[in-house]
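Action item from last week, closing it out:
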Amino acid sequence: MAGSAGLSLCGHELVVRGGSRLLATSTSSSDDDSLFIYDCSAAEKETQEHKGTVVRRCTALTFTASEEKVLVADKSGDVYSFSVLEPHGSGKLELGHLSMLLDVAVSPDDRYVLTADRDEKIRVSWAAAPHNIESFCLGHTEFVSRIFVVPDHPELLLSSSGDRTLRLWQYRSGRELHCCHLPSLQEPTEPWSDKRFAASRIAYWRQEDCVALLCDGLPAVYLFQLDAPRRQLVYQQQLTFQHRVWDAAFEEARGLWVLQDCREAPLVLCRPVGGQWQSLPESAASKRVCAHLRENWAMLEGSAGTDGGFSSLYKATCDNMTTYLKKKEERLQQQLEKKRRRGPPCGSNGQTKKMKAGRAPRSCSS
């Protein structure tokens, strides 16, 4: 949602997204120096008569656990399902919100569909009957940017938001288990300490139960340890970079790959060393991947060179009552000023009596 540059890993296969193009290569040093570039816009034109459509622009998508369907959330607040087994079939409307949807997720047993919207809500619906709502996860004070069901702990949900928090939920009951406020973790000397930003992306490392949190437009990654037995998130460390971070993804065998806005070093690999996370020197595999990214830098720079779209999701507040009371006070002051300019009133009763021309005033008879 926030930007068109992204990073994804599946085993040793690394895919970098830049706008409508995908760049796929391998992080393994034993693989050959192969690079695949896939143009999604060209493929879309070739298969336009077979593609599934939604009413408004798509904001998020996910596969079901069975991989038989793809759930697509759109800007109007609806979720459509498309069959993987019948790719030429039309989409089916599953559920709807009254607000823009920003993310969609599915429980590992395919029983629940979780949706996050701009109105601070996370809804948990039955997959078999989406009109039945299991629970709401309420607590965020701004739009919910990401939701993530923890694979090794399928009853737990992570969520990030424009209110600069990372929250842990027991989503079936809608109970909030833990909340991490990012401003409380920042140093006052950091240049973005007083800046409004959105916690925008969540990555998870199953090997260490590690959670990486990215923030829209910031050159930093926050690292947490998920303590599932105690139902809490433990803050570990903040990784700071020289350039804005676009995305991050864990590779189970290596660590955290960070994609940043730097042509000289677009990809950085980080691992815990002696209990502290730090960036590692470039290996032969990372040098090869970075070389591919530099050759196709225009693809990334053109799609993510501007700020993300999360800043436009904050709701503008308008206090009409304050403006009304201020204007009313101004009118009262103007009326009082006009009365002062007229001078003191005449007559015993405080009113000025008008007299007709040519008629003498009457006197009171005794």
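Closing note: Residues 224 and 235 are 4 Å apart (CA to CA).
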